[in-house]
Structures are given as C-alpha cells and as structure tokens.
Amino acid sequence: MGEEYLNKIIKNRRSVFPSQYNNTPVSKKFIELLLENANYAPTHRLTEPWRFKIVRGETKNNLGDFLSDTYTDITPEDHFSPFKHKKIQDKCNSADVIIVICFQKDLKERVPEWEEIAATAMAVQNMWLTCSVHQIGCYWSSPLLIKYMGDFFDFEEGERCLGFFYIGNYNKEEELTAKRKPINEKVQWLD
Questions:
Q1: Does 7 have pLDDT greater than 70?
Q2: Nearest to residue 8, comparing CAs of 133, 106, 111?
Q3: Span 114-119, mean pLDDT?
Q4: 105 CB contacts (<8 Å, ≥6 apart)?
Q5: What distance in Å separates the CA atoms of residue 173 and residue 175, rounded to the nearest whole number?
C-alpha cells in the first residue's frame, strides 16, 4: 500500500446518508471486518473503550419506534415536527445495519474521559475508512435522543452512547464530493 493510496482513501471518505441507501443487504462478514478494524484504533493505556451494539432486523425496527416515540414524548407540542418524527423513523428503516456507538468509561479513571471518547471516535474512523474502500455507505449521527439509549439498551456501569453509525449499500453512480476549506486557514506555524 502506497502513500498515494492512503491519501486517496482519506480524501474520498464521505458521509452517505440513509436516504441514499438501496435495499442491497450488507453482509455479516463485512460488519465483522468493520468491527475488527475498529478494534485497532489507538487507545491510551490500552483501555479499548469502544463498545458497539449491532442492530438489525426486528431490533432495528424497534429502535426506530423507540426513537420516534421518545421524540414525541420529550418534545413540547408547539415544537413538535411531524417531518422530524418521520425522518427519525425513516433513517432506521433505510439503513440495513445500525451500529450503536458507545464507549466504556475507565472506572479506575486512569485516563481522562475525553481520551476515551477520542479513542472511540478513532475506532469509528477506522470503520468509516473501511466502508469507503468497500464502497459501502455510512453516516455517524449523534442526535439529542442518544441520551435516552439507556432506556432501550442495558448499559454496563460507565457505558454511554455517542451516536448511531448507519450503514447501507448505495448506487455508486451518485457523485460524492468534498467541501473543505483550505487547511492553511486552520493552522498556525510557530517557529
């Protein structure tokens, strides 16, 4: 693998949203590859804080119902949006697989919590790059509703949800473009 190949993978990584997915299933073998690659993310003190819940089939439908019902329950009537309610359900229905992204806080507090979150984000980046290479669509969403996930899943002590990683096949003819400002607008060189 050459430097140019790595650069191309990084620069071509894109969000592919659930509304862009088709009905072609994503194999369990591919999901296992994603998880294996996620497991090689950097982790301070080897705490390996990432935790993933693979949601498919009927559980995926139940998650969609839970999220849309929770949105209804927590949203004041004058702020309720039928469009948003439907969109929550549609995301779950459109994705073939949803990986619930969680992290396990180091209960011994050997490392700061932000490092555990950063390590988990790097694990997700490994999955995202793997999806890109295999031309599988994916998208990380962290809605307000993630704070209610303890009502749907049994979390371990110190475990918390960071979002949902939606996965699905998509029609490759769609052009996916990048929108980035030049890096020099975000860097200070201090000699």
A1: yes
A2: 133
A3: 97
A4: 49, 113, 116, 158, 159, 160
A5: 6
**Separation of alpha carbons 72 and 66, rounded Å:** 10
Q: Taking the model in full, what pTM does it have?
A: 0.93
- DSSP output for 63-92: HHHHHHHHHHHHS-GGG--HHHHHHHHHHH
Provide the token pair at 166: 């939606």
- Domains of the chain listed by start with CATH number: 3-185 (3.40.109.10)
Contact present, 105 and 8 (Cβ < 8 Å): no
For residues 129 and 178, give the distance between their C-alpha atoms in angstroms, rounded to a whole number. 15
Q: In this structure, are residues 170 and 137 in contact, taking their beta carbons and an 8 Å threshold? A: yes
Cα–Cα dist 82/63, whole Å: 18
Residue 170's DSSP bridge partners are 21
Q: How far apart are CA 177 and CA 191, in angstroms?
A: 35
**Could you tell me which residues are beta bridge partners of residue 50?**
103
